[in-house]
Amino acid sequence: MTSGHGDSGEFEAPSPELIEEVVVRIGDLQHRRVFYDGLENPKWVKPLADANAFVNVPATVVDAEGYLRTTPWPEGDYLVRMAAEVPGEVAEVLGPLKDTHDPYVQRVILRAATHMPADLAREFVPTVTRLIDGPLARLLDPKDWVKLVSTLAYDGATMKEAMALANALYRPKAGPLEDGPWPRKRAVVGVEAYGYQRSMPALREALAPFGLKTLIQLKIWLEEYQVHSGKYIENRKRDLSTMWRPSIRPHEQNRGHDEVFGALVDVVRDEAVSLLDRGFGLSDVLGVLQRSDHPLVQRIALHVVTEAVSETAGNRASGREHLFDRHYLDEDFRNEYGHLARAVLPTLNQEEKGQWLALVVSGPFQDLDWLEERAARYLKVGETVEEVVKRYRDVWRRDVLASIGAEHLPQSGADLLAQFVEKWGEPEHPEFPNWMEFKEVTPRGAEGASKLASLPVNEVVVWLREWTPDGSSSSPEEPTIEGQARALESDVRQRPSEYVAVSAEFAELDPTYVRALFSGLAETVKQESPADWAPVIALAERVVAHEEDAEQEVQGFDRDGSWRFAQRELLRLIEAALSKEATGEDTNLPLNSFVEVVASLTGNPDPTPEYEAQYGGDNMDPLTLSLNGVRPVAVAQLADIRLHIHHAEAAGRTVPEGVRDRIEEVLKTRMGASADASLSVAAAFGRSIGKLIDADEGWARSVLAQLVGEPGAPPDSAYTDIVVSTALATYRPSLKLVTFFAGYYRSMLERAARGEAVAVGWSRERTATQLLGDHIVVLFVRGELELVDSLISDYFTHATVEDRASVLGHLGWGLGREDELPGDVLSRARQLMDARVQSVRSGSDVNELAGFGWFAMASHFPAEWWLPILELAATGDNLDPHGLVGEALEDAAETAPGSALRVLSALLSQRTEPFQRFGLVDHAPGVLAAALDGGDAEVIENARALLDQLGRQGELRLGDLVEERRKRG
Amino acid sequence: MVASHCVREIANNLVDHLDDVEGLPEYVDGSKHRQNLAKSWISHEALLGPVDRPTDVAAVPSPTGPANLMTVPSDLVERVRLVVEVEIGGTDRAGMRLSALMTGQLDHTQSASVRLLRDTLKFFQSFVHLRHGEPIELPDRGEVLGHLAKFEEALMGRVGDFFARRSDILDLLERANQRTNGGEGTK
User: Fold this and answer.
1) Element (H, E) at B61
2) DSSP calls for A183-245
3) A928 contacts on B by Cβ (under 8 Å)
4) CB-CB neighbours of A387 under 10 Å
5) For residue B179, what are the β-bridge partners?
């Protein structure tokens, strides 16, 4: 719009006729968008205003979901662009709107005002200030506000408005208390935290005309932030700032967890230093900062002194004055004092250096009573209070000197530091009273593996029995039981057979060590099974006998609070041993003993009903819960052993007599809600039932009613649902499994149809009844069921329309994930869909086809088959297009333009949200171009209507895109 | 006069046919309410007296205001209300319907485009009816055609080809952004 754009000449003023010619053509919102988005001529502002073109501003409303809804205001965007060219005329147009409460109009005013001179912009300050507390504030880039502040600040007549706006945006206020068990105070600001931090340097520059007043204001903001966020303890004048901001200058220890706080510290620091650069005296700057009671601000002052100390003689004198001020030797100033000392010490003469060292040696400066009182708290055995006080003083002096660094100290100071280090050790990070780093946390004592390895295993047992943690120290070096257990587990892996031989002796040890022993053996048994399991079995029998409840558990992170962890690890050891035998490599396992050990654990109290009530339900599904409970794991393991025996017999190996019957007898006693109401045990049976069927289908059928009740009987708990749904969720589709539970599906489907709950064992994305449908349709497409089979007909008769739609969509999705599929699978999938389509055409709910888009996207089926079905599906109100269906439609439009167009039109008419329409609109040009070039008059007319409709909905480039596609052919 | 009638009927009814504006107020025919009021009066002539002479029913001073009060049938008052409502609310309704016709939005009653259309409709409105023997000075043909063209352009924005209109607007933009030749690049 200016010569800078490379155009020559002056914009022409519009004639009244041209204005009228335009106005009569831009009634429609989208036509107004086209016009105002392209209008560059500032000379149109006044004539358009005279023609009332700007009087209709959008009204923002909050919709039922709580979202702000507004219509675009292209006139507003034009005014923003023109504000720099004809600010007076734009201000005149926007003036009548300055009392608006509409956030979008307020935003237009803000953006326009940033281009106006201060005398015009000031009129709009109240308007844009209201925007700060409005719903759009968090979405705005603060740079617009900062620019406005700058405009106002640099004009002497509007500086007051500039500071008022800056305060409204950046000044911290007391916010609501944080939610949580320990509500904390919270400071709030007018700008979103990230934007606050990003924009603060620009704001500082914007406020530069205020000189020292800027620093005063920024310092006040920092103090108020500290107070409102609860980080400043007013009655003690302390702020713990060395924890939140270890270094005033940039440093990796300054963790950016609080953007507003960090921004305020930086801006006060930078403005103070900048003032020195701009010619203000150090005393002026310190006069502002040192009036503060906040240690944080005083630290900034110390930093400023350090930065200024080399500039003038006066500044050097100030530096010396601060260096000798014992107030700054306090730990709170340690980091900044170190920097100051490094800058000032080289400027001192020998006498002054001596005086300074004498000052340090005279510290710390707390009185003796205080020191002794504190010392009494940290007494070690055999120490006196006097010794602790002396130690404290020495360490304090060491740390002051060390924070400066030996190379920066006078020789006498360096010598003294060396003495302290020799006596008390080298301090870590002395320049930071609070040093934080992240390390991998390992249990203390784990590094003791080498010690255990040096002992014979029988001595290890003795040592573990006799060793107890000291507990008198909080030192990270203090060993713990957990740490010793890790060392033990590591050692067991190194010499498993030696530990097997003495394993029975572990029975009297802490359960943490027993768990570590089993864990170590479970790893090694996969390579080599013990020649003699007897000692391990002896220990196992003792371990399974422990049955403590949750109340008996010892709480703590440094040891196992209960035997159940050792019991679970024992089961894992047996599982590992069996997995090795399953390969045929190990045929000498003590199966009888294993079975008895596991059988004992099927009666273990873990998990208790209280535990399941607390951690189950909405928190954790029964299957997940079952993987960590002793009792359900034991149940599942017995089923594993039963299958193991079956395989061994099939391979011709000898199996101990009676073990099979024993397993079946134990399992039978645990079956059914009346035997054990635990849903995690139900889930364990669900995930094991396939193994039991494989091992002995006859027996499994004989106990079915005991496990899940009689078919058709009203379920008295979720137990039956959990068994059935866990089986469906954990096994691949199998005719044997599906027919095994066939008598129980009707109840589940009918309850789902009535809206009643059907429990699911594994909470993923599929419900129990959807899982059932998934199995059935997969069995059909694999040719293991026929359409006439009652499993299929019953399912599609009784399942809800949502479940039917989900199952068919899931099938289409699954087919689409495979690159290649056998022809008969695809043929049967089509057969199933055709049958369901026939059902819909005969009157059943069309929304059953809501997931059919997946078939269209699967790229296995011809368009002439799926397009008419998709067209039918689109007559429902729930078709899920998943975006990608647009691509399939575009491909199909080449051969069936009319049908593709109808589907596209139907889908678009059902969706108004841009994100729902994107994939469809993206491929609309191809569909529309094919329809327009197809030669069918009715299709062409429909295509034009849809094109027109989409244009009016804001797809302004669609016309050009369609024409491009038509040209490409 | 025929053209004026056509324009009026299109302007009054097209927006209902388009049926694309949510909350569009219905067009209310005021003559029907007036006729109903007349019928109601006649049915209560015994109480109110004949309609062709001033009422001669005894009235009493109001205890709360300056008006005199008389007994009137309630159904007649309701019919009076409907006539008055058309007179008062009809203007708002007409404005919204015109806004909807021109812009597709109800609340643009004062926008430039709607004002332009309203002026054009007023022009035609003034030639819809004869004026009881009072002579009417007919406008010249060019003025009529000019208003017809505006009316047509206004409607085509709503019922014509969207992208053809977009193309027209882009042409207009070229003219709107025109610069004088040989200038110095100032605004």
Assistant:
1) strand B60-61
2) ----EE-SS-HHHHHHHHHHHHHHTGGGTHHHHHHHHHHHHHHHHHTT-SBTTTTB--HHHH-
3) none
4) 13
5) A11
Helix H segments across A440-585?
449-453, 457-466, 481-494, 496-502, 511-524, 534-544, 564-582
Chain A residue with the nearest C-alpha to that of B186: A10
Contact A25 B165 (CB under 8 A): yes
Q: What's the rounded Cα separation, in Å, for the pair A733 and A778?
A: 7
Residue span of the structural domain in which B31 resides: 2-57+67-176
For residue A289, what is the DSSP state?
H
**Whole-number Å distance between alpha carbons of A809 and A811:** 5
Q: Residue A959 is nearest to which of B102, B115, B163, comparing CB atoms?
A: B163
* Residue A872, min C-alpha distance to chain B (Å): 26
Instruction: State the nearest Cα–Cα gap between B101 and chain A, in angstroms.
Output: 9
Q: Residue A27 is nearest to which of B157, B185, B186, comparing CB atoms?
A: B157
- For residue B184, being part of any structural domain is answered with no
- Does residue B123 belong to any structural domain of this protein? yes
Compute the distance between CA of residue A644 and CA of residue A239 in angstroms, rounded to an integer. Answer: 67
- ipTM for the whole complex: 0.80
Share of chain A above pLDDT 70, in %: 93
Q: Cα separation of A199 and A189, whole Å? A: 13
* Cβ-count burial A688-719 (b if 16+ within 10 Å, e if not): bbbbbbbbbeebbeebbeebbbeeeeebeebb
Q: Total structural domains in chain B? A: 1
Give the tens place of pLDDT for each residue, A389-418: 888 899 999 999 999 999 999 999 999 999
Question: How far apart (Å, rounded) are the C-alpha atoms in residues B19 and A143?
Answer: 44
Whole-model pTM: value is 0.71
Other Cβ atoms within 10 Å of B69 Cβ, number: 12
Instruction: Say which of A7, A14, A23 has its CB closest to residue B113.
Output: A23
Q: Which two tokens stand for residue A444?
A: 């203390």
Structural domain includes residue B139? yes
pLDDT < 70 regions, chain A: 1-8, 180-182, 256, 380-381, 437-450, 469-479, 548-557, 581-587, 715-717, 881-883, 912, 914
Residues on chain B touching A48 (C-beta within 8 angstroms):
112
Q: In 3D, which of A545, A676, A672, A532 has the Cα closest to residue A600?
A: A545
Burial (CB count <10 Å: 0-12, 13-18, 19+), residue A238: middle
DSSP-derived 3-state class of residue A517: helix
Pairing type for strands A68-69 and A61-62 reads antiparallel
CA distance A34 to A52: 18
- The reply to whether B62 falls in a domain is no
Does position B187 have pLDDT exceeding 60, yes or no? no
Return the closest-CA partner of residue A132 out of A115, A116, A144, A119: A144
Tokens of residue A822, six digits: 């056998």
Cα–chain center distance at A328: 43
**Shortest Cα distance, chain B CAs vs residue A917, angstroms:** 20
Structure tokens, A532: 């003699």
Chains A, B: CB contacts within 8 A come to 149
What residue type is A862 in one-letter code?
P
Closest CA to A148 of A178, A133, A169, A134: A169
**Residues in B lying within 8 Å of A, measured between beta carbons:** 102-105, 107-108, 110-117, 150, 153-154, 157-158, 161-163, 165-170, 172-173, 175-187
Instruction: For residue A155, give how far its alpha carbon lies from the nearest alpha carbon of chain B (Å).
Output: 25
pLDDT by residue (tens digit) across A54-88?
Answer: 988 887 777 777 777 788 899 999 999 999 999 99
Distance CA A36, CA A45 (A): 11
- Provide the 8-state DSSP code for A11: B
> Residue A778: CB partners within 8 Å, gap ≥ 6?
A733, A811, A814
